[in-house]
Amino acid sequence: MTLDELCTTFRPRIEALLDRVLPAADQNPARLHEAMRYSVLGGGKRIRPLLVYAAGQALDAHPDLLDAPAAAIELMHAFSLVHDDLPAMDNDDLRRGRPTTHRQFDEATAILAADALQPLAFQVLASHPPLAAHPQIQIQLSNLLADACGSTGMTGGQAIDMSSEGRRLDRAALEHMYHLKTGRLLAASVLSAACCRPDTGQPVKDALERFATAVGLAFQIRDDILDVEGNTAQIGKQQGSDQARGKATYPALLGMDNSRKRVDELLREAREALATFGSGADSLRELAAYIVLRKA
Questions:
Q1: What CATH architecture does domain 3-293 belong to?
Q2: DSSP-assigned states of every residue in 235-268
Q3: Per residue of the chain (296 residues), what is the pLDDT tens digit?
């Protein structure tokens, strides 16, 4: 399956599932539910769910089992974006070309909407019918997601990011922060497919983790590059916001040329990690290139 075929097949599938699992906008408390839906259904490339499905194809995992982790990871990603945009964090006004949730609603509603999205992610893993007959897979998926998002994962990475504003990190510290903040959830996306194929051997899991680690770091460096050379309309958020807040970024530390070289190097590493996979991983390879070379 090509990347275009992957997107055509699975983007509508994940959009429909997210629409189903989110509470109706008119269900009480309506304003909270409206904000939850606004935060999740307002666009986005759905990179993390696509990674779940692409890895599932490489492992020949059944798509029905992949739906729940794909939705749960996207809900958790949306939760993190709402919190990241808050005045106490990055204080952003735009997300995906629209007002951020706290600007569209209010700060308290945004906090509550994000707080509700997090448990909803685990509820999907616990209750989605195709997984009901596979309790061990449900446990593994829940542990994987919790580990990726906790204090030694995405949340810890955000804490380091906040504490580093106005400070200079060395390359190792910066890459560690990126691995936690972005890479861990991307890795969970890929590894969740392995959970759905319990017979997946450890060497295959290790290769997928190497792939996801390289892609996750490249993803964040590419974000840094776009913050410098993109434009607000194209990237969907305020251009130059990282520099304005004195954030530690790859271009600020090593310059644009070295940032681009590092991205190219990481893409090669990601491709090499999949060297032993057959044509079933072609969409995963294409998705990596898209993530690393995207313009928005």
A1: Orthogonal Bundle (1.10)
A2: HSS-TTHHHHTT---HHHHH-HHHHHHHHHHHHH
A3: 889 999 999 999 999 999 999 999 999 999 999 999 999 998 889 999 999 999 999 999 999 999 999 999 999 999 999 999 999 998 999 998 899 999 999 999 999 999 999 999 999 999 999 999 999 999 999 999 999 999 999 999 999 998 988 888 899 999 999 999 999 999 999 999 999 999 999 999 999 999 999 999 999 999 999 988 876 666 666 666 666 677 789 999 999 999 999 999 999 999 999 999 999 999 999 999 999 888 87
